[in-house]
Structure formats: structure tokens, C-alpha cells
Amino acid sequence: MDSAYLKAKNICHQWIDEYSHDGGFERRLDIFHGTDWRIKRDDPTFYAAAYPEIIALTRLLASPYWQALAFENLSYPHRFIEEVRRTVAPHYQWPLGVYRERYEPLADWIYDQVMIERGPSLLD
């Protein structure tokens, strides 16, 4: 569970850094600080604002059921993506096209897990 939490935390923080999938994060910081907020990453409210998405994503990354759905169709894991949109990031976009053409941390986690569990030949 710890590794799923840490991975979810890293993915969510990368999304925040890239200004993608962060509507809830931004809204919570507006509530904490007003619309003119300027905080450092080590501010406790940064972690509080990111926490709901981190925990929601941890649930998916730690669950054998959701992992299986994430790994079932590497070109577009439809059911897994729908759950990510429903519970974590409503505007999440799966990177289409050639893998690693566009960096996306959640897709990278999925591909890395498949390579660890099943071998790199499945990605060719």
C-alpha cells in the first residue's frame, strides 16, 4: 500500500506541476488562501489540497481489480480510464499514439508495471 500511495502522490504532483487534471487542487487552494494564492510546495495546504486525488488514485493503483483493468488493453484501458475520470481526475486524457511520444505519468506507471510483470515484448 505504501508504494501505491507514494506512486499516486508522485503522479498527482506531476499533474499539478503540468497544470493538468488539477481542478480540485486549484479550487481547494482558492478556498484555503483566496484566488491570489502564492504558496511554496512545502506549505501544508499544498498537501491538503492534493490529498483527495492522491488517496483516490492510491485506491486504483493498490487494487488488483483496477490494476487488471489498467493492464488489459494498453492502447486504451477504457474501464480503468473511466474510473480515473469518475473518482480522481474528471478531465484525464490517455496519451494516444506511439507510447512515450508524450510523457504522461499514469500511463508510464501502467506500462512500467506491465513490463515488470509480463515482460517488454507485450509493449511491442
UniProtKB/TrEMBL annotation:
Superkingdom of the organism of origin: Bacteria
Q: Output this protein's name.
A: Uncharacterized protein
